[in-house]
Amino acid sequence: MGLDTPFQFQCGPERECFNRCCADVAILLSPYDVLRLKKAMRMDSSAFIEKYTLTMRSRDSKLPVVFLRMDEESRKCPFVGESGCTVYRHRPWACRMYPLGMAEPAGQNAPANRFYFLVKESLCQGHQNGSERSVRDWIDNQELEPFDQMQAPFLELMAHPQWQSPEALTQEKLDMYFMSIYDLDRFRRFVFDTRFLEFFDIDESRVQAIAQDDEELLEFAFDWLAFSLFHEKRMKIKKNPPPMPRTVAEAQANSSACG
Ligand code: SF4
Ligand code: SF4
């Protein structure tokens, strides 16, 4: 399906299947999904990750991937309530897109190459209902734009050719990757509670923004990882900086040593 392809679908509490799709489902969370959900729950990112997610290593890329953790007994999503999704305004990308899926041909990560497809599951009665709408209308209506905007640098980072080199996948680098984009409150402490800002020339306005705004901090994290993992010139080192810590643990040790 292209952006203008029409399809018929309507969900709602009047359906017999209401909420049944919010159980026993593998929901992959992007860094921006985690940001939105931890905001919805008013939780620190580390506590959110611990309580509501499962982290695994991707079989292909070997990078950590994060899933929403279903309740162990009921297999339900922890956010489903009798009246529907309790985090609706902040629900993840995959929940917004359903029943649509999106894909791009391998190695061609660009919006122009995207195509969409309809997921038809026997439990879902939404396909027999409602008027026709286009894929584009669905994307607008589900407010997917900020998710897609934040997804672009994430896909770029995951597809970086330098991950292929054996030195790229050290535990230290994977820890830095995970902390910087998923565990944002910890990353903020890494930036502000260590000597990080002594090394880099960053506009004061950006420093203020990343101190207060999670979206700005996530964008900054993508720059930081491109710089620290792949030596891209996305950050500027100050003249005569002190020796730079190489790992999260080292930076935190420095910070406590500094009192
Ligand atoms: S199964 Fe389909 S129609 Fe039923 S609640 Fe889920 S999305 Fe809506
Ligand atoms: S986050 Fe909301 S929409 Fe998504 S599975 Fe959970 S309850 Fe359903």
- Helix-strand makeup class: alpha+beta
Measured between the Cα atoms of the first and last residue, the distance is 57 Å
Helix content, binned percent: 40-55%
Strand composition percent: 5-15%
Distinct ligand kinds:
iron/sulfur cluster
Strand order of the largest sheet: 2-4-3
Q: Strand count, sense and closure of the main sheet? A: 3 strands, antiparallel
Q: H/E series, N to C?
A: EEHHEEEEHEEEHHHHHHHH
Which assembly state applies to the chains in this document?
single chain
Unreliable spans are: none
Separate helix tally: 11
Q: How would the global form be characterised?
A: globular
Question: Could you explain the architecture of this structure?
Answer:
The chain has about 260 residues and is of the alpha+beta class. It contains 11 helices and 9 strands. The strands form 4 sheets. It has a 3-stranded antiparallel β-sheet. A two-stranded antiparallel ribbon has the order 1-9. Helix 9 (about 205-210) packs across helix 10 (about 215-230). The longest helix is centred in the last third of the chain and has 17 residues, at about 215-230. Bound molecules: iron/sulfur cluster (2 copies). One iron/sulfur cluster (SF4) binds near residues 11, 19, 20 and 21.
In short:
With 259 residues, this protein is an alpha+beta fold.
What does the secondary structure layout of this molecule look like, with pairings?
Blueprint: E1 6-8, E2 28-29, H1 31-40, H2 45-52, E3 53-57, E4 64-68, E5 80-81, E6 84-85, H3 93-97, E7 100-103, E8 115-118, E9 132-134, H4 135-141, H5 145-158, H6 171-181, H7 184-192, H8 196-199, H9 204-212, H10 214-230, H11 248-258
Antiparallel strand pairs: 1-9, 2-4, 3-4, 5-6, 7-8
